[in-house]
């Protein structure tokens, strides 16, 4: 059995992660940490896991944590995570990191978009990016995997094969995404309270959202062009899910059939990407690690629609999928 610990296990992604890990036949969860000095029992923080795992939260002590685990899932906030991840890896623990600290290719870009000095800058640019369908070989041998952002996953999975095949132009690429409220995390914030969100939909982070450079940098790995996507997220009154509508321009008379065929061939052996001739919806991927995608033609523009669960394929499911790849297990182990 592989011993697993979770650093920062109190949030929404952590509870979804634990649900999957407890189903995984090759894993035993040995440590869960939080900053709460009272060290509550898991069931006090996550009642849905009552009688499923008899562990108390502990405050993180690096030496004892590293003695108790083989692999860590780090669910700490951006900028706080890398300082811990570096110590874990140096102690021989393999890590799947949920933060954005290692997703971007260079320190300058990270510090520009996140406004903080990177605490583990020497590792930036040398960490596997955690979309197995795109970067399986790098993930398999990695000591650290940067779990992708939820919005980027919904955009990159449909876009990367098309860019690589030369079926669409590198610009303009417009990504219009809707997300459920759980994407904001569990912290208290007035604008995410039920009376503020219910019966309302609103855009945010226009031109400033930190997932935009992540999308740009990963797409650029599949072509030589300078990528600058236009990305706008919207908050919608649902618990979970992301629906992304992506507008691209075809090359060489590419049509929708070409797009669907490209995806079908590219993802032929990938269990968690489902190419559909029908329109896709968040309800059909809720609670799963699937990303559903389809495409339509509209007056010469190809309109792509993708759907995934932001807490699963956009976070915890992707993390376990990365874990499985790192250990040469079937991608779906513990999830199907």
Detailed description of the structure:
The chain folds into two domains: 2-126, Rossmann fold (3-Layer(aba) Sandwich), CATH 3.40.50; 150-310, Dihydrodipicolinate Reductase, domain 2, CATH 3.30.360. Helices cover 31% and strands 19% of the residues. The protein contains eleven helices and 13 strands. The chain has helices at 12-21, 42-45, 62-68, 81-90, 107-114, 132-140, 150-164, 194-197, 211-220, 256-266, 312-326; strands at 2-7, 27-32, 71-74, 94-97, 128-129, 144-146, 174-179, 202-203, 230-235, 242-248, 273-275, 291-298, 301-308. The strands form two sheets. It has a seven-stranded mixed β-sheet. Strands 2-1-3-4-6-5 form a six-stranded parallel β-sheet, sandwiched between helices. Helix 4 links the parallel strand 3 (71-74) and strand 4 (94-97). The protein is globular, with a radius of gyration of 19 Å.
CATH topology (fold) name of the largest domain: Dihydrodipicolinate Reductase, domain 2
Instruction: Name the poorly predicted regions.
Output: none
CATH architecture of the largest domain: 2-Layer Sandwich
Radius of gyration equals 19 Å
Q: Report how far the terminal alpha carbons are from each other.
A: 19 Å
Q: What level of helicity do the residues show?
A: 25-40%
Dominant shape: globular
Order of helices and strands: EHEHHEHEHEHEHEHEHEEHEEEH
Structural class of the helix and strand makeup? alpha/beta
The major β-sheet equals: 7 strands, mixed
* CATH class bucket of the largest domain: Alpha Beta
The number of helices is: 11
| Residue fraction in strands | 15-25%
Number of strands: 13
Annotated CATH homologous superfamily of the largest domain: Dihydrodipicolinate Reductase, domain 2
Strand order of the largest sheet: 8-9-7-10-13-12-11
> For the residues shown, what is the average pLDDT?
95
